[in-house]
Amino acid sequence: MANKKILIVDDDLDVRQAMHVRLKANGYDTSFATDAMSSVSEAKKHSPDLIILDLGLPGGDGYTVIERLKRQPALAVIPIIVVSARDVRANRDRAIAAGAKVYLQKPVDNAELLAIIRQALGEPAEPNDETITGNWKLLA
Amino acid sequence: MKPPLRVLVVEDNAGDARLLREMFSKEKPGSFEVTHLLRISEALTHLATTQVDIILLDMGLPDGHGLETVRRTRVVAPNVPVIVLTGLDDEALAAEAMKEGAQDYLIKGQIENRALPRALRHAIERHRMQAETDLIRTHQLEFKDEFLSHVSHELRSPLNAIYQFVTILLDKLAGEVNPDQHQYLEIVLRNVKQLQAMIDDLLEVTRVQAGKLTIEPQCTSVAQAIADAVNTLQGAATAKAVALSVEIEQQLPLVCADPTRIRQILIILLDNAIKFTPANGAVKVEARVFKDNSDLLVFQVSDTGCGIASGMTERIFERLFQASDPASAGRQGLGLGLYICKELVTLQGGQIWAESTPGQGAILSVTLPIFSLRNLIAPAFRKARRTHAPLTLVVSQIGSDTGWLSDEARAQHTQGVRTLLQRCLLSDLDVLLPKMGSAGAAELFFIVALTDSIGAESLTRRIRQQFDDSDPIQQAGLTLSTSYQSAAASQPGSAESMEVSLERAATSIQKLMDEEFSSRIVTNG
Q1: Structural domain containing residue B277
Q2: How many other β-carbons are positioned within 10 Å of the β-carbon of residue B392?
Q3: Which one, of B432, B325, B332, lies nearest residue B379 by Cα?
Q4: Which of B 175-204 lie inside 8 A of A, CB atoms?
Q5: Is residue B253 part of a domain?
Q6: Looking at residues B98-119, what average pLDDT do you find?
Q7: Eight-state DSSP code of residue A134
Q8: What are the tens digits of pLDDT across the range A100-114?
Q9: Which of A18, A89, A106 sits opposite B168 (nearest CB)?
Q10: Residues B410 and B514 in one domain
Q11: With 50 as the cut, is the pLDDT of residue A140 above it?
């Protein structure tokens, strides 16, 4: 079976590279976007199975990206995980209301991120996933 | 030519009013424009529509009493300086009025010739300077806050990159790592985490200094906070072979405090205890009603570590304090943890202290006020000086246009709404209760008022007015509804003692609140 594809949207090269290494090691293929404009076109081009999205982006923030993705039926179904350094209290509900599955605050715990990715992609859970994601109820 | 100074005189006594008018008439024509009103209600209407430069306010008006008149005036015209007029025997009251925001007071019959215009001009000038200083201070604090939040954000990003790549190496995602390399990477990782914790502490301390450490007291469980904190630090204790145990008194009462902050305090205390306790030692958390004062609950974190040097048990709470023997616990951090703890505990009406026998460990104790409806309403009852005052529960509910009030809106506006409600309480006979629990789609605020339905009706009107005038709340699209119910008060003439009727009132209010909550629980099917 082909690897699942994940689009990483973040303007910080180090973040993209670290995430790429981490995801590749866990059997995922990755593609990248570095700003709000290109993330939608990248999503169209690669039709990823999941999008990891930063909120602070050049050319419009992550919310505009979610909005644009949700407007196109083919892209609207792709699960979005928001990973941002912005304050959780002020942003989580807004991100989820806009259509994201989960809001994670940077720095993100790798085990947690991977467990959530598996859950969002409907993949079988690893032994420790349950305890890690106990706090996160993914929205259907 | 300077425009005349617009003076509003609110004075019902004809003689006093005439004296004031005579004083003004001696001034240069055109320098004062005096409006004279007899009632506070008239004055408030006037202030709502007309600009004035200063208010001369009698504190014994027929439709308003003492400090209340000052408060109501300040609500309607917060930017207009007020000078209160008092009798000779009322200087203490005048001093109270200054605390409420009056600029000055004049004693009737003691106003010297020519002193009146001077007092007015001084009051206006002082008021202007105060407003200016406040503005400058606010700007400075805002700048400092913005700067620090910016810096911390900027520090976090590179730190996050270091963390990510170190863990990539440690997890062997870039190839095998030999045992020495593994050990060194562990050291890098430990230091990264330490740096992260320091940045968090620094941010917290700047909030303390800016007076921005937010505390949202509510009726909450210390036992739950202990369970959460122990859960968070179990890993660190196990790694150091330190036994972590909990002992909580049966039926521990709830406290009036901020649950997030209790957890934060516990985590700092536990983290310290584990840090200063050698392998095979023990750390214990206990909680019970404080035996010296049954209105307080005490929780203690004790350890079998190196203890605190004699004479240092108070100094450890100072900002940037470091233990003198750093060898015992490795590197110390910034010395901010216990300082933050002390701030958090004090802000919540508790105390923190340490006891220690050097070499045999330390005990850190924290007290917090036990939640008691009875204690919250007792001062109002005492003030009313009667046991059969009518009793009403006023419930304000804040919701959103979209149905469910988001956590974001709750966090952002709860404090604002509380301030707004606080402003509507006209006397010491109304008590705004702390948050009582979660009410699903809306946020509930409770006011216990020692008044009848007419009083409650006018309180409801004031709340509506304040709410309509509040831009941030209007812009957030929040909706407000307010209702009230009378609670069971004692019968007039009954011979009940204050204690008995307080108890009855608390039970009755609690029952009404429980009903409010249960009516809002949404059940599926």
Answers
A1: 218-369
A2: 25
A3: B432
A4: 196
A5: yes
A6: 84
A7: G
A8: 988 988 878 888 899
A9: A18
A10: yes
A11: no
- Contact B171/A25, CB-based, under 8 Å? yes
CB contact under 8 A, A97 and B411: no
pLDDT at B141 over 80: no
- Whether residue A110 lies within 8 A of chain B, CB to CB, comes out as yes
ipTM for the predicted complex: 0.82
Residues of chain A found within 8 Å of residue B196, distances taken between Cβ atoms: 107
Is A92 strand, coil or helix? Answer: helix
In a domain, B241, yes or no: yes
Q: How many structural domains is chain A composed of?
A: 1
Question: Does residue B441 sit at the A interface (CB-CB below 8 Å)?
Answer: no
Residue A13 domain-assigned?
yes
**Chain B CA closest to residue A24:** B173
The predicted structure's pLDDT at residue B524: 38
Taking contacts as CB-CB distances below 8 angstroms, the residues of chain B near A14 are 161, 164-165
Question: Which residues on chain B are in Cβ contact (under 8 Å) with A110?
Answer: 167, 171
Q: Chain B window 50-79: which residues touch A at a Cβ cutoff of 8 Å?
A: none
Q: What is residue B31's DSSP assignment?
A: S
What are B245-270's pLDDT values in tens digits? Answer: 999 998 899 999 988 889 989 999 99
Q: At A71, is the secondary structure helix, strand, or coil?
A: helix
Name the pairing type of β-strands B391-400 and B443-449: antiparallel
In the listed set B350, B369, B388, which residue is the last one of a domain according to the structure? B369
B375–A contact, CB cutoff 8 A: no
DSSP H helices, chain A, are 13-25, 36-46, 62-71, 73-76, 88-98, 110-120, 129-132
Domain that holds residue A75: 4-135
CATH number at residue A76: 3.40.50.2300
- CATH number, domain with residue B409: 3.30.70.1130
Least confident of B135-144, B271-280, B442-451: B135-144
Judged by CB atoms closer than 8 Å, whether chains meet at B411 and A94 is answered as no
> Is A140 domain-assigned?
no
pLDDT at A137: 42
Q: Residue B330 gets which letter from DSSP?
A: S
B321 residue type, one letter? F
Query: Using 50, 70 and 90 to split pLDDT, how confident is the model at A89?
Result: low
